[in-house]
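Section 5.1 Outputs to date
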Amino acid sequence: MISIISAGIAPGLALLCYFYLKDQYETEPIYMVLRSFIFGALLVFPIMFIQYVLDVEMVFHSKVLYTFVAVGFLEEFFKWFILFFTIYQHVHFNEHYDGIVYGVSVSLGFATLENIVYLFANGVEYALGRAILPVSSHALFGVIMGYYLGKGKFSSGENRIKWILLSCILPIMLHSIYDSILLSYLNWRYIMLPFMLFLWWFALHKAKKARVKMIDSKLP
């Protein structure tokens, strides 16, 4: 039991520490990051229940539609909802990079509890594969969500609305593509590898841009 919980928590904690420590000038309060993490984790069971009902009732006969609505939309929309309504207006969200810290925190809270549940059900031998794919992909979706929410926070007018919408829509689309690859292709590994490389490049590029903005804002 301890080995499963440790294997379930470790990748999410490592990724959260990585992105948290990149906030070099004004790190976010630990209690705020932990609160976001817990909020993300609390989403797991209600979303799993909704997904179970949709699956059992066979609401969607198309794999693509099921993947988009039951997985990509449900998971990313509610993570975005938590992020927008508990963090976006908070006084500690005062730099562009902060959106990434909180986006990763909410996403990894969800991914970590989901990972523990999966390992309890299927065995600790899946821990490495889960760390490389589902947990890391959730973190990267969180980076992208937080990056565009940060752009919205520090923009005005129509630009603000555009970035906020993109912070929700883009993770939904990327998550849907991720799961479509897993569900639709027999040799999914050959397609997943370039997709994950792109996702890492894209998310780290956005994180770097946010850090540059943060550094520029601190210069006299």
